[in-house]
């Protein structure tokens, strides 16, 4: 039998993100605020060409630009 997250059409990473958000939201105010701050992350990347690093960008900005361009 397949795992419930797989049967629902989720990836394992997405399943973990949903579960973590549910746990953080169930906490009392003080611990919830601390947990929400820990839950935020920022991924940065840069393209390398000919041995030189290009501009460093955040994944969030890149995703927003891509969504705006696709509309």
TrEMBL record:
<dbReference type="Pfam" id="PF04627">
    <property type="entry name" value="ATP-synt_Eps"/>
</dbReference>
<dbReference type="GO" id="GO:0042776">
    <property type="term" value="P:proton motive force-driven mitochondrial ATP synthesis"/>
</dbReference>
<dbReference type="GO" id="GO:0046933">
    <property type="term" value="F:proton-transporting ATP synthase activity, rotational mechanism"/>
</dbReference>
<dbReference type="GO" id="GO:0005743">
    <property type="term" value="C:mitochondrial inner membrane"/>
</dbReference>
<dbReference type="GO" id="GO:0045259">
    <property type="term" value="C:proton-transporting ATP synthase complex"/>
</dbReference>
<feature type="compositionally biased region" description="Polar residues">
    <location>
        <begin position="60"/>
        <end position="71"/>
    </location>
</feature>
<feature type="region of interest" description="Disordered">
    <location>
        <begin position="44"/>
        <end position="71"/>
    </location>
</feature>
<comment type="similarity">
    <text>Belongs to the eukaryotic ATPase epsilon family.</text>
</comment>
<dbReference type="InterPro" id="IPR036742">
    <property type="entry name" value="ATP_synth_F1_esu_sf_mt"/>
</dbReference>
<dbReference type="InterPro" id="IPR006721">
    <property type="entry name" value="ATP_synth_F1_esu_mt"/>
</dbReference>
<feature type="compositionally biased region" description="Basic and acidic residues">
    <location>
        <begin position="44"/>
        <end position="55"/>
    </location>
</feature>
<protein>
    <recommendedName>
        <fullName>Mitochondrial ATP synthase epsilon chain domain-containing protein</fullName>
    </recommendedName>
</protein>
């Amino acid at each position: 039998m397949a795992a419930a997250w797989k049967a629902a059409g989720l990836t394992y990473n997405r399943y973990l993100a949903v579960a973590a958000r549910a746990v953080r939201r169930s906490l009392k105010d003080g611990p919830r605020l601390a947990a929400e701050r820990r839950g935020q992350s920022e991924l940065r990347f840069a393209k390398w060409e000919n041995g030189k690093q290009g501009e460093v960008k955040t994944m969030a900005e890149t995703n927003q630009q891509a969504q705006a361009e696709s509309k």
